[in-house]
Amino acid sequence: GESSVDTVLDISDGEGACFTLSGGTEVVIRNFRMIGFMGFDERDKAGYINTRGSTYIWGFGLKHCNAVSISGTERVLVENCHASRMSGECFVSGGPSRGSAKPGRSYSQWITYQRCAVTDSARNAFNDVMCGTENTSVLQCRIVDVGGCAWEGASRFVKFVGNYVRNSGTVAMGNLGPSNRDQTYPDLGAGQHIIADNVFEQNTPYGGCAIRSASGATQVIIRNNLFINFGSSAVEASGATDPRHYPSGNTTIAGNIFDMTCVGRKSAARTAINASANDTLVSDNQVYVRGPADPAVTGIRLREPARNVNVHDNLIHNCGLGLTTARGESRVAEVVDERTFLRSASPSGLPLEWIQPQTCRGWRLAWLDAGGRPSGAPSVVESFDPETLRFRLTGPRPMKPGDRFEVIAPSVNWTVHDNIITGCRRPLVLDSYGSETTLVKNNIVARGEAVEAKVAVELRGRFDLVGNQISGFDEQDAAALALWPDRFGKPCGNLYRANVFQRCFQAVAENAPGLWAASTAENNEFIECGGVPAAGP
């Protein structure tokens, strides 16, 4: 087009795409403005709609419009193009993949959207629908008031870099599963993304958080992003699986700054970083609230049974919860026999591991009563069949659909070290099973200016604490370290070595007698503290 202001493609009275590309080698589209017929205020009409007597539909399928649709074109550049009021995905690609393209048929190997904008639209801004597209880049684009995802991609080698996003849905990576893959999976992997140098402002009206790696996304880097006055959850590395989606993993979340201050609306519960995926690195991030601690904000949440998680050199201050851990839970969907069952689609604490089905062999399941407490002896997983999705136990267990259980991995390999947590009402809450390979080391936990900060470290599982410095929890009845029995009512048997407790009303508070004595305590130092425990055996 001659000008992105004056060259207008208006499809408000029609249907389909302003530009449709199918096959071919190279296309360049520049300097257009494209207008559809459904804005942000009508986003629910274009979204997920339940139907009576059948499955769901997506509303935009009833009357569809988008800006650019690409299927199998090898190289595409879309530059300085601006779309609004589209009922479907504004800029979308699909088509065959490297592993599925027939002889003589092309697949999309390089798509770049540069200096484009999507505003006031009902559904997604940018979307790679299938796993086939490779090397899509969304660069220096502006995404504002979008009712669906800012980006949604099941494709490979994606770069979402240098963009501005406000009041728009999730940057969603994944959507890989048995029905969305090709013959090159898992050898070539899928869902590889770099999400970097972006600015996210305000909140996320769709999708639950600003950035999510899930459903088969692997080799994901989320770095150097800014979150401004952010009123929604920010980043999630999800390990959730269901019968349609693979697990994600191999994620780095580093160098981001999260200003979680709520401005101009009621503060909603939200989390800056939520990690439940295997092989996750969380480092060098800042999470904070300007002014008093906001009880609705959680800095970092780690959920079991994620394995191989390293959290270090983060700065967290003025949050309600600083850093917390959580247990993984699932439910029985169908009972096959007294030893065999199928898991419900959610919650997904017990993973469906198609690629490595031996993963959960030997894991324990703690069955829960109506009050949510473990009841009876745990079961042990003998095997998982990736074809039938059936779990088999080593011994019989009375089961019925809906039975709930928590998942206990024998070794999760977590290290939480060299973080600073200050000014939070509940700075460090270790409320999961933990394991012998869960280490909390060399962290600084300070009360700062927090009020009603009654406990610095809450501990309800198997975590070793080494070399931490805890100071300033001097309000009446406050404690540096509060100990509980584990979920089965037994002492956790943790190691407490070389920790420094300073200026705390009470050094150690036990919620059952003998918890400190049942631990291994060595070379801890107590300065200006009351409630100093006797040395352990």
Verbal overview:
The structure is a single chain. The chain has 537 residues and is an all-beta fold. It contains 1 helix and 50 strands. Strand 4 (48-49) and strand 5 (57-58) form a beta hairpin. It is globular and about 80 Å long. 51% of the residues are buried.
Mean pLDDT: 94
End-to-end separation? 80 Å
- Strands, count: 50
The fraction of residues in strands falls at over 45%
The helix fraction, in percent, is under 10%
Structural class: mainly beta
**Tally of helical segments:** 1
Question: Which residue ranges are poorly predicted, with pLDDT under 50 across at least 5 consecutive positions?
Answer: none
The Cα radius of gyration reads 25 Å
**What overall form do the CA principal axes indicate?**
globular
How many strands, which pairing sense, and closed or not: the largest β-sheet?
Answer: 42 strands, parallel
Topology:
Elements: E1 8-10, E2 16-22, E3 26-35, H1 43-46, E4 48-49, E5 57-58, E6 65-71, E7 75-84, E8 91-94, E9 110-114, E10 117-121, E11 126-128, E12 136-139, E13 142-153, E14 158-161, E15 164-173, E16 193-196, E17 199-201, E18 209-213, E19 218-223, E20 226-228, E21 233-237, E22 249-254, E23 257-259, E24 270-275, E25 278-283, E26 286-288, E27 294-303, E28 309-312, E29 315-317, E30 319-326, E31 328-337, E32 340-348, E33 364-367, E34 379-385, E35 390-393, E36 404-408, E37 414-417, E38 420-422, E39 426-430, E40 434-441, E41 444-446, E42 455-459, E43 462-466, E44 469-471, E45 479-483, E46 495-497, E47 500-502, E48 506-510, E49 520-522, E50 525-527
Parallel strand pairs: 1-3, 2-6, 3-7, 6-8, 7-9, 7-10, 8-11, 9-12, 10-13, 11-13, 12-14, 13-15, 14-16, 15-17, 15-18, 16-19, 17-20, 18-21, 19-22, 20-23, 21-24, 22-25, 23-26, 24-27, 25-28, 26-29, 27-30, 28-37, 29-38, 30-39, 37-40, 38-41, 39-42, 40-43, 41-44, 42-45, 43-46, 44-47, 45-48, 46-49, ...
Antiparallel strand pairs: 4-5, 31-32, 31-36, 32-35, 33-34, 33-36, 34-35
